[in-house]
């Protein structure tokens, strides 16, 4: 499927210049079908509160006082909302796009088409932008899908315009900036503004486990190569092993190898391209380097975020070796998470057939307003035909807990909010179970492409949780495949009446699960 690829944000803050990219006919059609919802004068004297726009952890007991007025708050995203009629029409379209009997089956939209059909009309966007500029903010522009407006300013400007103060909060020893109360906007803008995506630095976490200690393998002097069977008996998975276990080889033989497809990886750290080249060369994969796309300034190499970006980039290209892999990198700011900015860039540029994301945070850390914004973006991806895949997490049902530092859960049972919308494919984790019979599934040596597995290996739900007393301090933690019932999203129609899915009225995740355990790294 060929797609339009355009800029995420049009390159001028002048609305007239932005709209010149749309034809007069399309602008006319949009104006005829989308009615203005801002019907009153935009007046700061009449303010209304954006409920549910304060992070749940921005609480008084963690408050350490106000931020300096000149604290830069860059790349804030003002989230625009749809009318009830638009929301109903969008849900109908999304159903039709998946209905083989419909004339709209797989008739995907471009971001610009999405914006004209489901975004605010021109005059409403102009009113919102004019108000932001009148408050001294630098307005970067409107998303092609008309879902957000990007703007930048300072803590003092935010307090003056939105009537909310930015404070420092210290939670579990980590410092965060966050708004201390729900922001306000002129009441006249309420029909088209849902809120600000984030005004805080409570970040989404990479869903990666890094071994607590080196893995020792045997070096085969005859082949001059290491064996990917560790001295403790565990096995390392190569792409060739993966293709055997999950029966991908028949697809490769039929020419289904990613050719003509694009995979976009959500990231907020750069990587060393040589690491990907070494990975592909060592494992017998043809040269096909990923494309690095910087959405804004380069954050450089950011500890665990780099490892996540490298893992996701390498293995996406390993399973689909001929696909074009695009690593989209957005730096964190004092107001926005780089993850959110990369998601928006990929979707609003229609950048790929598949979007892969291995970040998350638990639903309990989010308000209903933020959940609405996350779902809105996932809906746009679905309308454009983007398969949006998200890891469910590494700490079982306790998504609020950090498996790297905790061996006993202290937070609530809560799933990854990025995976739990009905418009994402939630990807969970399994653990191979050889049942003590390794010889039935593994060769004692690997071949030239490091294939050593013999056949499919039975899988269990991933659960490697253990205490320090059980497995030592290097490996202890809450390590298990994430999943459970959403508290924010209702059960979608396609999960109702399906064997094995609880009749609980909630969106349940995961949707699919594959090997994720360190049992086979």
What does this entry look like structurally?
By secondary structure, the protein is of the alpha/beta class. Helices cover about 25% and strands about 20% of the residues. It contains 13 helices and 23 strands. It has helices at about 15-20, 25-35, 85-95, 110-120, 120-135, 155-160, 240-245, 250-255, 275-280, 305-320, 340-350, 370-385, 470, and strands at about 45-50, 65, 70-80, 140, 150-155, 165-170, 175-180, 185, 195, 205, 215-220, 225-230, 260-265, 290-295, 325-330, 355, 360, 385-390, 425-430, 460, 485-490, 505-510, 510-515. Strands 13, 14, 15, 16, 18, 19, 20 and 23 form an 8-stranded mixed β-sheet that branches. A 4-stranded antiparallel β-sheet has the order 4-5-3-9. Strands 2-6-7 form a 3-stranded antiparallel β-sheet. Helix 10 links the parallel strand 14 and strand 15. The longest helix has 17 residues, at about 305-320. It is globular and about 80 Å long.
Counting DSSP E segments of at least 2 residues, the number of strands comes to 23
Distance between the termini: 35 Å
What is the percent of helical residues?
Answer: 10-25%
Summed up, the helix count is: 13
Task: Report the sheet with the most strands, covering strand number, pairing sense and barrel closure.
Answer: 8 strands, mixed
């Amino acid at each position: 499927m060929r797609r339009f690829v355009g800029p995420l944000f049009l390159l001028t803050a002048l609305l007239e210049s932005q709209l010149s990219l749309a034809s007069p006919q399309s602008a006319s059609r949009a104006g005829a079908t989308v009615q203005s919802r801002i019907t009153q004068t935009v007046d700061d004297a009449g303010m209304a509160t954006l409920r549910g726009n304060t992070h749940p952890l921005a609480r008084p007991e963690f408050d350490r006082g106000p931020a300096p007025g000149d604290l830069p708050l860059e790349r804030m995203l003002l989230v625009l909302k749809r009318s009830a009629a638009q929301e109903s029409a969008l849900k109908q379209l999304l159903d039709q796009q998946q209905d083989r009997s419909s004339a709209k089956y797989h008739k995907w939209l471009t971001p610009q088409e999405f914006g004209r059909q489901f975004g605010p009309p021109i005059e409403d966007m102009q009113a919102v932008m004019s108000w932001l500029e009148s408050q001294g903010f630098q307005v970067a522009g409107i998303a092609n899908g008309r879902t957000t407006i990007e703007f930048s300013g300072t803590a003092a400007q935010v307090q003056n315009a939105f009537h909310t103060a930015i404070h420092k909060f210290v939670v579990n020893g980590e410092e965060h900036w966050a708004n201390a109360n729900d922001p306000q906007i002129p009441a006249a803008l309420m029909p088209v503004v849902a809120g600000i995506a984030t005004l805080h630095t409570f970040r989404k976490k990479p869903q990666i486990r890094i071994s607590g200690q080196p893995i020792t393998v045997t070096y085969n002097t005859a082949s001059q190569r290491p064996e990917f069977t560790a001295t403790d008996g565990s096995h390392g998975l190569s792409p060739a092993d993966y293709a055997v276990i999950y029966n991908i080889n028949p697809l490769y033989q039929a020419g289904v190898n990613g050719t003509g497809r694009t995979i976009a990886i959500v990231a907020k750290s750069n990587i060393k391209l040589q690491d990907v080249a070494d990975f592909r060369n060592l494992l017998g994969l043809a040269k096909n380097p990923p494309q690095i796309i910087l959405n804004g300034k380069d954050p450089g190499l950011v500890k665990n975020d780099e490892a996540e970006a490298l893992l996701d980039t390498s293995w996406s290209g390993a399973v689909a070796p001929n696909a074009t892999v695009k690593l989209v990198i957005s730096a964190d700011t004092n107001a926005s998470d780089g993850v959110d900015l990369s998601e928006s860039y990929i979707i609003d540029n229609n950048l790929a057939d598949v979007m892969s994301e291995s970040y998350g945070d638990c639903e309990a850390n989010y308000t209903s307003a933020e959940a609405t914004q996350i779902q809105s973006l996932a809906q746009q991806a679905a309308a454009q035909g983007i398969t949006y895949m998200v890891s469910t997490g590494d700490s079982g049902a306790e998504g609020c807990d950090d498996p790297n530092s905790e061996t006993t859960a202290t937070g609530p049972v809560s799933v990854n909010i990025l995976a739990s919308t009905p418009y994402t494919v939630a990807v969970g984790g399994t653990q191979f179970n050889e049942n003590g019979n390794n010889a039935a599934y593994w060769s004692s040596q690997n071949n030239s492409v490091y294939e050593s597995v013999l056949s499919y290996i039975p899988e269990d739900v991933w659960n490697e949780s253990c205490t320090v007393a059980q497995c030592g301090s290097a490996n202890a933690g809450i390590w298990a495949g994430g999943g459970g019932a959403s508290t924010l999203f209702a059960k979608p129609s396609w999960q109702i009446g399906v064997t094995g899915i609880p009749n609980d009225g909630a969106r349940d995740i995961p949707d699919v699960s594959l090997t994720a355990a360190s049992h086979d790294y």
